[in-house]
Amino acid sequence: MIGDWDNLRVFLALAEEGSLTAAAKRLRVSHPTVARRIKALEDAVGTRLFDRLPDRFQPTETALELLHDVKEMERASQSIGRRAAGLSGSHLGTVRISVDETMADFLGRHLRRLRENHQCIEFEIAVAHISANLSKREADLLIRSRVPDLASIVGRKLGTFAHAVYGTGTFAEQIDGTDYALKALPWVGFDDEHSYMPGQTWQTSFLGNQRPVVRTNNGIVLANAIRGGNGIGVLPCFLGDADPALVRLTSILDEARADQWLLVHADLRHVPRIRIVMDALAQLFRACRTEIEGQMPGGRQTGAAVAERVA
């Protein structure tokens, strides 16, 4: 029957993805299952829904008419799923938090503290640069540096992460208090596709036409490259200050300060287990404010003259 949601869900995935393989991957089903579901839906509708082109499945005019209603059904299904999650008063369950790799490192260091009084809740930390879709329940919570302009998303500021330039002691010895000496050192940074990452705008402006000798799309790889003596680069202070192999070579870079926001879908913010984790995260960030803001006592610093000039 045409009202079979499984068939319609497959139809929507194929229309948006354009191929059986991509639709199957998205739905986590087999390639033949997608083909079978589409055939069943076409039989129920009584007409062809896709033109089988060499490089993709192209929706027909009939399919495009159907697509609008199916998208509305999907939104309604997602809304029911989110609201159903809030009907249970139980504190038990899993909370999935989507973060980038640097924030994952921070949470990993403090995970025991975060879970200290919440052992009944299972934590999933999903690492990705691309934000998970909260409407589709790809995650329960996001921690990101920007709040999307969506009425359905509620944001709560957690804190502001400080960044500075770090390097090994060998590089620190080569700084003589001038911008030239700092620029003359080899640098490590993000690749062009990740120039939006904290500190990269400042670094690009400071270096001018000079490009980092090592470039990556991953903040932890970047930190490891700096730790390994491949060059100097911008790191969040919580990472650099805690590493005995690194020295802070500049003062905190004002242009590289990065706010971090806790994001949740409005339908889920009052679910008990999600509310508990939200409050626990806010408490953790407050307790770690000194670390986050780069004010840890006893940190190894050098190059003060350069620091005042480049910050």
Largest sheet: 5 strands, mixed
Structural class: alpha/beta
Helix content: 40-55%
Output the radius of gyration.
25 Å
Q: What fraction strand?
A: 15-25%
- The ordered string of helix (H) and strand (E) elements is HHHEEHEHHEEEEHHEHEHEHEEHHH
Query: Please, what is the CATH homologous superfamily of the domain at 163-257 and 295-310?
Result: Periplasmic binding protein-like II
The CATH top-level class label of the domain at 163-257 and 295-310: Alpha Beta
Give the overall pLDDT as a whole number: 86
Number of helices: 14
CATH architecture of the domain at 163-257 and 295-310: 3-Layer(aba) Sandwich
Uncertain ranges: 303-309
Order of strands side by side in the largest beta sheet? 4-3-5-12-6
Cα shape = globular
The CATH topology assignment of the domain at 163-257 and 295-310 is D-Maltodextrin-Binding Protein, domain 2
- Roughly how many Å apart are the termini? 66 Å
Number of strands: 12
How does this model look, in words?
- This protein has 14 helices and twelve strands.
- The protein is an alpha/beta fold.
- Among the domains are: 5-85, Arc Repressor Mutant, subunit A (Orthogonal Bundle); 163-257 and 295-310, 3-Layer(aba) Sandwich (D-Maltodextrin-Binding Protein, domain 2), CATH 3.40.190.
- It has a five-stranded mixed sheet.
- Helix 9 (200-207) links the parallel strand 8 (188-190) and strand 9 (214-216).
- The protein is globular, with a radius of gyration of 25 Å.
- Residues 303-309 have low confidence and may be disordered.
